[in-house]
Amino acid sequence: MRLRHAQVAIIALLISALVMTIGLSLSKKTTIETTIDTNEEALRDAFNAAESGIDYYLKTGESEYIVPSMPAKADITSQNIGGGNQLDFGEYTMAGSSETYWLVNHNLDGSLGSSYYSGTSITVDVGSFSGALEVNYFYLSGGVYNVKRYGYNFSTDSTRMVNGFEVKTGTSVVVNIPERQPIMVAIRPIFMGGHFKISGSANFPSQGKEISSTGKVGEINSGEINKKVMVQERYRIPSFLLDALGAQGSILAQ
Fold this sequence. Notes:
CATH architecture of the largest domain: Sandwich
Largest sheet: 5 strands, mixed
Radius of gyration: 30 Å
Strand content: 35-45%
Helix content: 25-40%
């Protein structure tokens, strides 16, 4: 009888230990999942704070935004886009759309300034692009805004060539900038898109601002959880340049 009681007690202890082990495992799993859910929510809050910080900066110019409804904030910084002798926006330009590069500075109110790119040419890097490329060069002469058009075929495939465009080989093309009041260069790929960048023998003016906002959630001073958002606020194209872009139908290759 005592042996049977002892066996029952041992079995009961084993069952209790097994149940306790399962319970602890479930408790640990629940704790981990709760932590993950909390982190994801905090990351979303940090992202929202960063986005709100950019809107706040654009409205007020202030570099710090405090979220009123939670212990969160955003630190905002900005820097000029360009200023060196190379311009690469890191963007893919779709076929038929244009990428623009300014050759004149802008005033604080957004109007065109009077400090012009001083180089006599620019080099357009097309990479592995194998379509047709139209380059529209805008300049000011005698108080009148003008546009010159250059066209290049980077492909020998007749289905990707434009009649009248110059045939080019390699991964770049040099565009002459002879006028002393250059305004802008617009690059438009045809038949296919590509990633383009330009370089010159002189520095290019600022193309706008790059705004960076870091949202922080939790203990504001430590910023344990944060999320960074970056946007580019580039200068817009004036309507008179858009009118000039559509006014001339032929390609002027020089």
